[in-house]
């Protein structure tokens, strides 16, 4: 295969990425800026008189929150996949009656504004005693990802070659066996895509955390940020420093996962 | 047998679920326990920046211990607190004590979820009337202010000196505008304030509104128009930057501490920050239109006690509130919150002994007015919304001050009719 | 048999949301009876009922009663039927909010889609660093909205924002991005486009992966240039993926509140007040929560999204029949 890797594409790619990430750069810039220099005009392209105060605060206070956010993120991923994948299997491959309607209902489910959901959940959680718990938050965050996950999985699974499934049936596998040994491994890429979105949505969630888990012993980092927002004063460099520190591990996770989303579909499972 | 690809995520899921369950079990519960003595009392306040282990948190715990109970404190940001309180009240799980921003007190009181000070047996006779009035609805008081802050005019002494302006001479709008023109002529920036379309914007506009002699029940009076014209002219002439339209008080202060601005309208809470600046700062009271001091709105929270099903709890709640509201208590709060002025004269005297330089602020607070006073109560938020909309409209050039306020009055009148 | 043979017959298998399974695949069952299918879908069904039905019902309940603050707490709201809806629609703000919503949604969608597609096509040929760069494009999604919203608000500040500084270096005068009613909508749309590009990029890119390289080679052999290849191969084959991307994008953009709220709070002078912002402001943005009108506006939004959902279904059905 000819080496089609023109360097200019890489250069252009870097330029585009740099443009896209400029606001993120600005965030890093602010995290090092003294409060007195925040509104200086004209603005400094980089922190001329840097301060590490923001980071000092973060390292002092926010690290446990990062751990909680990670826990919630991974939990949401697990829960989303566990609920969405089997359901998609049923709709796509087991011909669930009313599968089409279900797909539509899922679309509608995504139309409900987050705030409305949070208020509804508050009432449920109060009665079930689930307020201020990590598990409750995982459940709430997954409501954002599950409909999307089902849609994604369904679309993918409905495109799987029927021969594979027939082959499994001939081998004597029942539905569950087929699901775990054939369908899920093939759906690895869509699983990772769903996991990616679920993680990102859960990681950056504020509305649910604020309404349902304010007084939890374990707070996600989005709530932790609010300890820098006082009644009338805000410590912006600390907030931005928190965001920077929170983004690094998650960004690494992204780079690693992206490799899986990239690859093609059935990856040669069916030979001509 | 599970494929390897599935085994890992499943194992992960199980671990996460187990951890989550553990976390769920060990996290703190919510509403207070059933026995009144030696139990847990819940406390909500809008100070998330004062975490566990801060002076404020320790003080709250100390008051609880004095009353024989442990206090479980949750801090919300001010904007969420009112709504959380309503949600909790609806479910019957209100906390025992809430510190509420003073304009929200009448709204919550109106729903019947707060106890009156009489019910709790609190003595409010020593509290300054102008400060107590903010929490008064239909002649009943629903809480005690923990302190009040208000607005005044900070100035950059270095810039004023260079431009030949004497801050003591700023006693009217005309002299202020004159000072601004001198300062901008000398190459510096004039004044910064917060005109954002939230309650903060109304808060900052009110000293000018009231200073002109206008009244919140009549937003389109000539006095009101003159106040809005003052601000609009400043922006149009470049005495105030365009950013005031989107500034919160915090942002406005950030602009002031760059050292480029001569004046900033801001509050007591920035006193320490002002002292830390490399340039010399001072503070004067906001001028009224012709002479005298403009009444500024009161900021600061009220300590309130929501209604509980178990009324036996009120006895301990009263002890907690009393502990927070002694003159020494007020001074401690003042120092923690840099600087809430105590709402009683005893408290104010004690504070001045410690910080004599706060006398401008004490005087400003004595001249201040509650936003929900004059029995505006629950009408205030509706009027305020129209007021800040009109301010934005005018400052951004979308309409003239007169038209903006006329539209505001119309909307406010229809929103508040029959209430 | 692979996907090469007849690209026009059926969309190639793709790991992205497309049409629900066509009817003719009925016989492809894996030996599961109807109940097995239900068993697999049961967790989802229970989940939907518990977590979506309840808030939706509550929202409808809020909108057909008069929940002033007192009634909210005491639970004795008066039933008013459709009065809240009528009030909201006949309010002077409705026209402006509806128009702002249209501008915001379509402005964002078009650019998000076009830029996402362009970037997806750009990244299609794997070049050096393409994987890492593509991953970095998702970083904006890691950030809580308060952080990204604030970063944009600063960059677009009229007096001390970097964007204006940059423009001034080119001789363009000060643009009051967020404080002038003329440009505020453009400013929030730009920020929203920025937020939406990663989503479009990822999904469209996955869709592109499923178009076999052989098709492109065949076309190149026939002498088609890249532009022609795009319009004859890429775009048509991407249609189902594009459709679902646009539909989901529409649903998500209709709901957007945070980014606008942080940047302009719906102002100045209601120039960036969309229906979602209006609903949010009524419920949480003033000192007097007005939950019933807020719920009414929120439900109207859901209805609008539903209408587009139906349009999408209709398109799907028509495509399957062709």
The CATH class of the largest domain in chain B is identified as Alpha Beta
Please name the two chains that share the biggest interface, counting residues whose Cβ lies under 8 Å from a Cβ on the partner chain: A-C, 121 and 108 residues
Structural class of chain A: mainly alpha
* Total strand segments of chain B: 11
Question: Unreliable segments of chain A (pLDDT under 50, ≥5 consecutive)?
Answer: 263-272
Query: Please, how many domains of chain A?
Result: 1
What structural class should be given to the helix and strand makeup of chain B? Answer: alpha/beta
For the record, what CATH class of chain A applies?
Mainly Alpha
Distance between the termini of chain B: 69 Å
Q: Largest sheet of chain B, order of strands side by side?
A: 2-1-3-11-6
The CATH homology group name of the largest domain in chain B: Periplasmic binding protein-like II
Low-confidence sequence ranges of chain B:
1-36
The arrangement of helices and strands of chain A along the chain is HHHHHHHHHHHHH
How many individual domains of chain B? 2
Helix content estimate of chain B: 40-55%
